[in-house]
């Protein structure tokens, strides 16, 4: 069921429409005075005068407390999505540093900066979200080609059929590792479409502690 506008919202929308019609009529000299335009279109005269002085409607204007312009926020969003697509979703502190860099590039004095909680409000954007990450080895990530995986399983199935291997003789062997000196979990800014922990690629040349498991296919 589609959302239903409240009565106050509908009234505001209708009034905005009348104001726009009054402005158009006055600028086209169809009505000679602002007072008469306000009367005919049933709009507050003071509001109509403000709008004729190019004061934008507050409901559609950008909030005064926005530190970045819309263009700057869009650029920051594209940067986040770009590095996230390469497996390196940025931490909130990194996003804040990038926002401050954009503000610094304006060349204004004094230099404006965003606050500690600015990123929390910024990631309310529909395309972004804040999630906890998990470390993911770069070499393993390179092996996530669906074509390669499918070919490997096809080869396994072919081998089982070719040699008549019994399920009791099929075992799965796997290992996982923990990188020494790396934090396993960190909060990052990533795409809102992702659920669960976001995988972060990491170099494969770290010292690892390895855990090995083996299980039978028939169990």
Q: What does this protein look like?
A:
The chain is of the alpha+beta class. The protein has 3 domains: 11-53; 70-123, no CATH class; 138-216, no CATH class. 42% of the residues lie in helices and 17% in strands. The chain is built from 8 helices and 5 strands. It has helices spanning 7-27, 34-40, 45-52, 70-85, 92-104, 118-122, 138-142, 146-163, and strands spanning 128-137, 171-179, 187-191, 198-202, 208-216. The strands form 2 sheets. It has a 3-stranded mixed sheet. The protein has a two-stranded antiparallel sheet with strand order 2-5. The radius of gyration is 30 Å and the shape is elongated. Mean pLDDT is 75; it is low at 1-6. InterPro entries: CenT-Element_Derived, Homeodomain-like_sf, HTH_CenpB_DNA-bd_dom.
Quick take:
By secondary structure, the chain is α+β, with helices and mostly antiparallel strands. Helix content is 42%, strand content 17%. The two termini are 48 Å apart.
Shape: elongated
Low-confidence regions: 1-6
* Number of E-state strands: 5
Largest sheet: 3 strands, mixed
- Whole-Å distance between the termini? 48 Å
The structural class is: alpha+beta
Rg estimate, integer Å: 30 Å
Order of helices and strands: HHHHHHEHHEEEE
Spatial sequence of strands, sheet with the most strands? 3-1-4
Mean pLDDT: 75
| Number of helical regions | 8
Kindly state the percentage of residues in helix.
40-55%
Q: What is the strand content?
A: 15-25%
Number of discrete domains: 3
């Amino acid at each position: 069921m589609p959302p239903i506008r409240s009565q106050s919202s509908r009234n505001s929308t209708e009034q905005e429409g009348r104001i726009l019609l009054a402005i158009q009529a006055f600028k086209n000299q169809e009505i000679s005075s602002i007072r008469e335009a306000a009367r005919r279109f049933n709009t507050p005269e003071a509001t109509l005068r403000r709008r004729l002085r190019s004061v934008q409607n507050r409901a559609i204007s950008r909030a005064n407390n926005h530190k970045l312009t819309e263009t700057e926020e869009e650029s920051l969003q594209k940067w986040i999505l770009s590095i996230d697509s390469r497996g390196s979703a940025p931490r909130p502190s990194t996003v804040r540093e990038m926002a401050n860099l954009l503000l610094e590039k304006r060349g204004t004095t004094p230099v404006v900066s965003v606050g500690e909680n600015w990123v929390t409000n910024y990631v309310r954007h529909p395309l972004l979200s804040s999630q906890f990450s998990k470390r993911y080895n770069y070499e393993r990530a390179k092996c996530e080609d669906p074509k390669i995986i499918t070919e490997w399983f096809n080869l396994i199935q072919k081998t089982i059929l070719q040699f008549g291997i019994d399920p009791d003789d099929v075992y799965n062997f796997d290992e996982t590792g923990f990188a020494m000196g790396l934090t396993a979990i960190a909060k990052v800014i990533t795409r809102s479409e992702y659920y669960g922990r976001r995988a972060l690629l990491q170099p494969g040349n770290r010292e690892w502690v390895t855990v090995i498991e083996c299980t039978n296919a028939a169990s």
